[in-house]
What we know:
Bound molecules: adenosine-5'-triphosphate, magnesium ion
Number of helices: 9
Strand content: 15-25%
Largest sheet: 6 strands, mixed
Mean pLDDT: 87
Structural class: alpha/beta
Distance between the termini: 43 Å
Order of helices and strands: EEEHEEHEHHHEHEHEEHH
Oligomer: single chain
Amino acid sequence: MSEAPDPAPAIALTARGLHKSYRVGGRPLHVLKGVDLEVCEGEILAIVGKSGGGKSTLLHVLGMLDRADQGQIVFEGRDRAALGAAERARLRNQAIGFVFQFYHLLPELTALENVLLPAMIRHGGAAWRRERGAARERARALLALVGLGDRAHHRPAQLSGGERQRVAIARALENQPRLLLCDEPTGNLDGRTARDVQTLLWGLNERQRQTMIVVTHDERLAEEATRVLHLDDGRIRERSTPGVEDLPAAAAAAGRAGGDPADDPVGAAG
Length: 270
Ligand SMILES: Nc1ncnc2c1ncn2[C@@H]1O[C@H](COP(=O)(O)OP(=O)(O)OP(=O)(O)O)[C@@H](O)[C@H]1O
Ligand SMILES: [Mg+2]
């Protein structure tokens, strides 16, 4: 008896025909020249390419932080173009975590307050009074997870570059995003700490099928991703399309029945 083929993995995010130009001093700089890509739920997609090639630009567009001049973004079946500003902001806050290349921590807040910020935005007003205890617990646990349990009350200026990067990672995880976008998450770390951060991210992927797009110059990170795309001259030049068997073991095992998205990354990783 022949077995039914595995169902295709669900698509978390699709981009079609993305174009993006900047204009500086009256001259256009065409950075994205028709980018197409798809990210499946539970995969780690690495994006590599030369400096200045548009990787951060692409990630910002995919995360709906910036808009393309042309093209389509569909996140979890919803077209970006059909979303109002408030709905887009809600999705960014609750469903998408972003680790910025240059961290973008708020200088007047401590590490702990920076990590708490997405939760404060999520549960504004009266709900925050109810939620803040649990949010604080999670923020503390996330800081411990990235090795900064004893830096919670430092402001960004009182942290090293790599420590700021790790605070940014903790902040991106605070709201338990379904899609995590990381721009050079190990770019400022020593080899050992870079591996610790990779272990943390890959652990989230294995345990709860955390979907991730990781822009990186770190070869080891790229090698160990589910799939690697090269951004070259504004287009995706090479792509290896995986079969289901190439998805991470946990993703394949969880099947499309899915892990529990409500799994707590802190608890699960602890
Ligand atoms: N806001 C902006 N205005 C004008 N030009 C910009 C802007 N942001 C980026 N650029 C230019 O667009 C190009 C792509 O920038 P981007 O930051 O996306 O590159 P990258 O691939 O992330 O590079 P790196 O690996 O160095 O981080 C660069 O040449 C950059 O100078
Ligand atoms: Mg960049």
